[in-house]
Amino acid sequence: MNEKTEQVRKVWDDQANSWYAQRESLLADSRPVHDWLVRTVAPQHGQRLLEIAAGPGDTGFLAASLLGNGRLVSTDIAPAMVEAARKRGAELGIDNADFRVIDAQQMDFDDASFDGAICRWGYMLMPDPATALRETRRVLKPGGRLALAVFTGPAENPWVTIPVSVMRAAGHLPPPSSEWQPGILALSDRSRLQSLLDGAGLSSTIEPIKMTWTFANPEEYWTFLVDLTALGPVFRGLSAPLLNTIRTTIDARLSAYTGADGITLPAQCWGALAIR
What we know:
By secondary structure, the chain is α/β, with parallel strands linked by helices.
């Protein structure tokens, strides 16, 4: 495992417990994305379905009941996330799932061993998504379907552009680079995503999926940023005074999205169906 991949693994190992603790609210807000992925991959009775970068596994678990005597293989690069998914599966009574620690950029599955694959918010965070997509194609059977979701651009996702812009203005994040860097909006360019899918030899269609993040108050949103997103390690690396200044600025920018029911932040993903 190279250094960049190890860094990714560590981030999500560190956040696994928080993802499990917040599993119900995360699923509720992101349910339109889960539902699109399951509907699009169209799991059938008796099939074998791979979930890539599964986190706590909820997308795969929604598909598991449609597999009948088929099998879900829930995978993640972070061992702690795999354990969170195992625990979540037991909680939901899922009995047709296996759990594996797998780097999607180098999978040890046989060629053509899955009927379908799903990946929610995974490829954008990988150091080498091109290799991961080629690996995904390799393990799919001819005609096998991959359904994936990644976030679209800054304008549609203020939930992340607000903190990123504040951190960049304060000099705590580098400016955008033309070189590939994994991140929340790393595959927001539709043409780049299309190029990666084409390069992997997958026939694909791409469409937008809208969702909404909701928070009772700024404290809840702040906890979400620090404990559940890829920005967390950056925030945790700041001194208390700097963090307080950053947070005050972010809280002020939330006012445009705050109402009587709390904070409502729109979000949008690209949903791609890719067929081998």
